[in-house]
Input
Amino acid sequence: MTSPSPRTLDAWLDYLERIHPVGIDLGLERVAEVARRMGLLEQRLATRVITVAGTNGKGSTVAMIEALARAHGLTTAAYTSPHLLRYNERLRLDGAEADDVTLISGFEAVETARLADDPVSLTYFEAGTLAALWAIARRRPDLAILEVGLGGRLDAVNVIDADVAVITTIALDHAAFLGTDLDAIGREKAGIMRGGHPVVLGSSELPDSVRQCAEACGAPVLALGQEFRWTPGAVGRFGWQGAVGDHASPSVEDLPDPGLPLDNAATALQALVAAGIALDEVSCRLALRDLQVPGRMQWMGQWCLDVGHNPHAAAYLAGRLAERPCRGRTWVLLGMLGDKDADGVVAALAGVADGWVAVTLAGERARTAADLAERIAGQAGHVAYQAPTPEDGAAWLAGRLAPDDRVLVCGSFFTVAAILAWKQAQAA
Output
């Protein structure tokens, strides 16, 4: 198959979706070979590299590390996935989305390398990861923050050695690839650790296998609730206490709640300290005060958009909504993929949902609104409407919202992306 022409970003993305026989093909042999040809394994990607893995909380943790680092005057690059509206969202350079020229140049570099000598087949994600790493390496920022796409040990991001590894949470998700054994999933996530380099554990409920992997490879452990913690302060505020070396115990008080999991906020702060960055209290407060992460507890008027798509994430959302009761009804607009635990998500949200709108997502992996409605009704939930698309469900609901009502949109990146685009179109 020839390379795309004309070489627009959309043409490249279409091409990359078609050149590998399967969408997900875990393993490092192919991607490492292309990375070697590109020179990515022979030089430092950045002065410091933090790699973030976990089931939930990766995106918000990356965003907080990035915001905190930039507030301290560091140059940054952040690579995340998936995107909501534009592929450019996946790579941020000094806080700004990468432009088309940067991404296309990266894809061209990957294509040249993978076709050299014996051609190597890459997945869409692998090619995109290598293109992002190439763009980051050309800038050599003070800090690169890399989010693992799936798992850890065999994820394309793991071709780069991290100075600090972060594990946010471990829960059941992507069972077709990672299985349903939490200890086994923990070992996969722990594959981003490197001997002699610290690992920050961002949950007090990780399986034993994570710490066992750290001990086996000689990675110093900094664990939430042990070496570092957060404590509640005044309303909307919290304090953080961390660890540096064997003796120093840095702390920052009176931090603003960023509207994201405080476990993740504490983890982000500890990750920066573990990377050798001395925290400035004023800079930390400014970074967290002004932080907004699209699709993560993102409020747009009466609508709250969150990409949570498994029971663990749904339980967090239910807890946050319970903390801020409303005088009206709480609606849940839910659209999910067929390989996700819909019953578990419905159960987690049942206590805060007064009414449900079930929506169908497009694509072969999608779950129908009828299937969701049956599962919701099976748990005594009231399904007010079944919509053929998220946009149709949002339009139906918008005409019936009372002034004191609110809507939680969740279940999938695809659901949130559709409603985010719909809201933006409504405001235009």
Notes: The domain at 9-289 is CATH 3.40.1190.10 (UDP-N-acetylmuramoyl-L-alanine:D-glutamate ligase).
